[in-house]
Amino acid sequence: MEPQNPNYREHATAIIRKSRFAMDIGLVLDDLGPGWCETHIDILPKHMQQDGYIHAGVQATLADHTAGGATGTLVPEGYLVLSAEFKINFLRPAVGERLRCRATVLKAGKTLSVAESEVYAVRDGAEKLVAKATVTLAPVRGR
Amino acid sequence: MEPQNPNYREHATAIIRKSRFAMDIGLVLDDLGPGWCETHIDILPKHMQQDGYIHAGVQATLADHTAGGATGTLVPEGYLVLSAEFKINFLRPAVGERLRCRATVLKAGKTLSVAESEVYAVRDGAEKLVAKATVTLAPVRGR
Amino acid sequence: MEPQNPNYREHATAIIRKSRFAMDIGLVLDDLGPGWCETHIDILPKHMQQDGYIHAGVQATLADHTAGGATGTLVPEGYLVLSAEFKINFLRPAVGERLRCRATVLKAGKTLSVAESEVYAVRDGAEKLVAKATVTLAPVRGR
Amino acid sequence: MEPQNPNYREHATAIIRKSRFAMDIGLVLDDLGPGWCETHIDILPKHMQQDGYIHAGVQATLADHTAGGATGTLVPEGYLVLSAEFKINFLRPAVGERLRCRATVLKAGKTLSVAESEVYAVRDGAEKLVAKATVTLAPVRGR
Question: What are chain B's domains?
Fold first, then answer.
């Protein structure tokens, strides 16, 4: 997959970091390249749902936002990346001290792109796949 | 739809309110009854993504959590409600001062329930449907 | 919802009827109007899966194709309607002599439309909702 | 992934082959093993939609049914595998002389399993990924 924007790294980094909500929940960019992005969240009590597991919404936000970063590496300069829809399966209750996410672009199109995000929970150093998402994104020319 | 738990109201209310993450993002329970639940979030700058829209993750968390509340009205006493998967479509960029959500249960089953959540953005008093989700939930006996 | 094509009825009817696969599985157009479409399939032994239920693929094809018909009523003349993705929940095992489907457009956009399809199984004259789908479609200018 | 049924190969093969609808559309089992299954369909005019592409319903049926075969290798003897829901993204218009599918189980659980299916179109000997699905299946004890 070939970036169309020579500054794709800065562009995708800004997509990840300029989101207030992603910052508010503690999302950290680890690395990115053409068609992929890696992030994590260090888990705090505020990320939990009512039964002591990491909330589905935290996992979904991480999966969606990281897919946006991955797709952002492949859009032309000046383009936004908006989520059109996503689907996420929660494979097991998520517990641990960190959530890690890797998103990869399956198809980069002019009007639609599709990315997949895998979410791993890290507990005592061991990783388990806890969620997998498919995200459809629309590249949109910014104003 | 018939509640199996005479204390269904308290049970579902606890599902909504005892979630740290839902509280952290400002989710408020408005009302609930057998097979439905209504909630809202008053939008703050922290809920935004990088382009000035309400983050997909905020909408997804609201849709997922409200579906949990709706499903929680129909499970037996002592049962948790865990999200197995969900899918959400973002119909238009979300802007406004409030997100409102109504979830209704489509099917309440022993091992799987399915609920739908509609998310509306309220702007200057007018409402627009901005997202719609389908959520599959698994009732699980608590320990 | 306002049709942009004065011949929307003929256009959407052709979308439904010119599909070889839809015809092969016995899909029948019942009626359509701006933003909606109704169809059915009379169930034959060939529609079954291995346990005596109507195959998920039959339900999915009906849901997808009827959503295409509903969306086809709202696109400009000369536009195709291609499915970008869909998600379908099977609410209960489907049995009966007929499957009936109603699709309605949730959002009609220039590059993306979203429709919902409800699939009912008719058995001894009584109807049950057996599946519900959300379909994202892309209007594309035909050659 | 460890089969619980010593006759898992026969059991999963029967899931694939005893489906009337899968046979009707020409689905052929190529191979299977613990947690995976491969199939194909040789494309005929009857598989087309209205614009000359392979119908989304054909791709969806192939993805769903092959996921059932993959999951069937991991269930106990006497268990059915019913699709609870699936989501499929169509990455590009599907054309060619054959559709090939590989499904792999992401998570095998007692009440829910999750599998992924990749659908490739083969045209003039070259393969392209045309669709990807995530399928949630419920193992159910047969009568």
Answer: 8-141 (3.10.129.10)
